[in-house]
């Protein structure tokens, strides 16, 4: 076994693995009658407390180099174990555990406050980017990387999408073509009526929302009606942001690379040297491994075949112009 691989590549994943093992072991210990707990007669809470306040913090600070990230994971993992203990530890064995359970409300309030402060900071950074006429995508990326550096990469990418959704929902009118990185820009809003179709879908959602709410309120329950309506409104936030972003975010060409921006999703950067073929396309493309589609309505009209064998399909207003420009820059 390659020990260097464990210490360099996977060491920061070990605390999560330890958390999973601890959770499974103590769940079995407290819930099942076995020889480990004298067949249900000996299940003290202090055994789990040792792992919560000694094992988990020790593992996190040993295997995670970034002290800030380690402290954050200690807080999250210990909170999860306290929550787990409130379900698996028998009530007759709880002595000090109820006190830890009461702290979860203060923890939730702290997290909410932290999130609100972080959101306010990100909004301020984005507003400053508008004033400087900076690329909005780059401003969002810089803000997330600066203020959420401790989160995993996948979570960071998701936060970028979420931030972009709210940015275009609230500030789309301030986004100008000159704000985007690139010398030539190609848009997707008019292709097969993409943006018009989005607007129609939003209008249908707005029309049916009160009707569905009333039907669920009287036929199912007020709680069900409220939940469905809230989820619909959250989804509508995304669709409105997507509608506004379609006419603002272009596919851009630089001297050395293609920048694929579409809807509110994170941009993809493709170096010209990584492109093997550029073709016009008229056929419907199914989802598949190694296929990325940046198209909402109809069939994508530009096909990019990469040297890796992967394919990228685009739906733009002027496909011939994009293909000619790409062939010229290559």
Automatic annotation (TrEMBL):
Keywords: Membrane, Transmembrane, Transmembrane helix. It comes from Shewanella maritima. This is PH domain-containing protein. The chain crosses the membrane at residues 12-31, 46-64, 71-90, 102-126, 199-216, 222-241. It comes from the Bacteria. The keyword Transmembrane applies.
């Amino acid at each position: 076994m390659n020990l260097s691989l464990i210490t360099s590549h996977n060491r920061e994943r070990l605390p999560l693995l330890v958390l999973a093992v601890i959770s499974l072991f103590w769940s079995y210990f407290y819930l099942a009658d076995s020889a480990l707990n004298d067949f249900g007669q000996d299940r003290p809470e202090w055994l789990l407390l040792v792992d919560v306040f000694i094992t988990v913090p020790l593992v996190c600070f040993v295997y995670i180099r970034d002290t800030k990230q380690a402290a954050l994971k200690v807080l999250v993992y210990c909170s999860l174990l306290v929550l787990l203990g409130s379900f698996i530890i028998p009530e007759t064995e709880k002595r000090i555990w109820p006190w830890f359970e009461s702290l979860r409300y203060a923890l939730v309030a702290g997290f909410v406050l932290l999130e609100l402060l972080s959101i306010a900071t990100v909004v301020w950074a984005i507003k400053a980017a508008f004033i400087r006429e900076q690329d909005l995508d780059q401003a969002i990326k810089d803000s997330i990387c600066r203020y959420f550096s401790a989160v995993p990469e996948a979570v960071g990418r998701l936060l970028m999408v979420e931030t972009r959704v709210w940015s275009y929902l609230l500030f789309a009118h301030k986004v100008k073509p000159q704000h985007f990185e690139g010398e030539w820009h190609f848009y997707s809003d008019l292709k097969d009526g993409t943006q018009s179709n989005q607007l129609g879908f939003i209008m249908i959602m707005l029309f049916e929302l009160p009707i569905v709410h009333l039907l669920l309120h009287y036929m199912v329950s007020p709680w069900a009606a409220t939940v469905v309506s809230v989820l619909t409104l959250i989804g509508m936030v995304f669709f409105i942001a997507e509608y506004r972003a379609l006419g603002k975010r272009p596919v851009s060409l630089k001297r050395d690379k293609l920048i694929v921006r579409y809807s509110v999703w994170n941009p993809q950067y493709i170096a010209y040297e990584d492109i093997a073929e550029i073709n016009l396309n008229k056929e419907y493309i199914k989802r598949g491994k190694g296929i990325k589609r940046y198209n909402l309505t109809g069939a994508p009209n530009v096909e990019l075949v990469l040297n890796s064998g992967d394919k990228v399909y685009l739906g733009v207003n002027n496909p011939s112009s994009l293909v000619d420009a790409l062939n010229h820059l290559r």
